[in-house]
Amino acid sequence: MVALYHRDAHDGPGQVIDSSLFENLFQIVGPQAAAYEKLGIVEERRGNRLNFAAPRGAYETRDGRWIALSGTAQSVAERILIAIGHPDLITDERFSTNSARLENVEQLDELIQAWMSQHNLGEVIEIFEREDAALAPVYDIAQIYDDPQYQARGTIVHVPDDELGDIPLVNPQPRFSETPGRIRHAGLPRGAANSEILKEELGLTDEDLERLEDEGAI
């Protein structure tokens, strides 16, 4: 849209959009480049934790489900402590500030996990929503199928397939109001488009196709 606007606004020929897979994902690492160049810090694996904020992680509930929570901001961290039944920890010197929580992250994680182990996923979500604390379930595919938001948006669509019948695929993203994407097929058999491509696009004859078949080229 930006490129199209630039073209229209400046009455120009347009521009090349250069986008790579790794650069889009590289944004996920956040401030690691600055930490390395300015402080010489090389980040290592930390599981679900961050080295600059706590609490943060994934925790298992009593019914074997998983949730992810993040208390990067002080106010959110305090609401999480209230949600897990420990409002007293807000003023506890071990957990009263982010830096203190990072120093005592093992104890903090143990407290959170102990509370999670006493509640089913539905109870956890209800309590955290009531306290306005940041949390989200970590879905498996069965939970995704049952989620009303996925269903309402039609995130999964069924496409006919000659071998497997209707198979579920992920609907094209992003959504366009006037020209929505669609999946025409799940993948055609090998050679199914030979005639369309070789004859209609490249101008080969039926005799050419027969020869190529005899030679094993198609």
Describe the structure.
- Among the domains are: 2-39, no CATH class; 56-138, formyl-coa transferase, domain 3; 193-218, no CATH class.
- β4 (156-159) and β5 (167-170) form a beta hairpin.
- The protein contains 11 helices and 5 strands; from the N terminus they run αααββααααβααββαα.
- Helix content is 41%, strand content 10%.
- The two termini are 41 Å apart.
- It is elongated.
- The protein has helices spanning 2-10, 21-26, 32-39, 74-83, 98-103, 105-116, 121-130, 141-146, 148-153, 194-201, 206-214, and strands at 56-60, 66-70, 135-138, 156-159, 167-170.
- The model has no long low-confidence stretch (mean pLDDT 91).
- It has 218 residues and is mainly alpha-helical.
Short synopsis of the structure:
The chain is mainly alpha-helical.
Number of helices: 11
Quaternary state reads single chain
> What is the CATH C level class of the domain at 56-138, in words?
Alpha Beta
Structural class: mainly alpha
Strand content: 5-15%
Please outline the major beta sheet.
3 strands, antiparallel
Question: Which CATH architecture of the domain at 56-138 is right?
Answer: 2-Layer Sandwich
* CATH homologous superfamily title of the domain at 56-138: formyl-coa transferase, domain 3
Q: Would you tell me which CATH topology of the domain at 56-138 applies?
A: formyl-coa transferase, domain 3
Provide the spatial order of strands within the biggest beta sheet. Answer: 1-2-3
